[in-house]
Design goal:
Strand content: 15-25%
Radius of gyration: 16 Å
Structural class: alpha+beta
Order of helices and strands: EHEEHE
Bound molecules: iron/sulfur cluster
Strand order of the largest sheet: 1-4
Largest sheet: 2 strands, antiparallel
Helix content: 10-25%
Number of helices: 2
Amino acid sequence: MAAEKRGFVSVDVAECKGCGLCVEACPVECLELEAGLNAYGVHPAHYTGAGCTGCGICFYDCPEPGAIEVMKIREAVHAPAHQG
Ligand code: SF4
Ligand code: SF4
């Protein structure tokens, strides 16, 4: 079984142009366009808050540098016991 890599995304609404490419591209459909408008007068993308795998597809599909950021959540790693 493949290890699950959970993540989350952060959208900078000031940079987002509301093109919706990330929404269309997300394989788990955890992005949507907000109902409200940003300073450009468009509906910015918004993370629904659950389900992101951290795959990064939205990041690579976004045409606006800095509009969307993907972060991966790593599993806690148990440190080895201190040795002498
Ligand atoms: S990183 Fe992947 S799963 Fe997460 S919001 Fe972007 S496209 Fe969707
Ligand atoms: S692809 Fe980028 S610019 Fe387009 S809606 Fe998503 S975050 Fe905004």
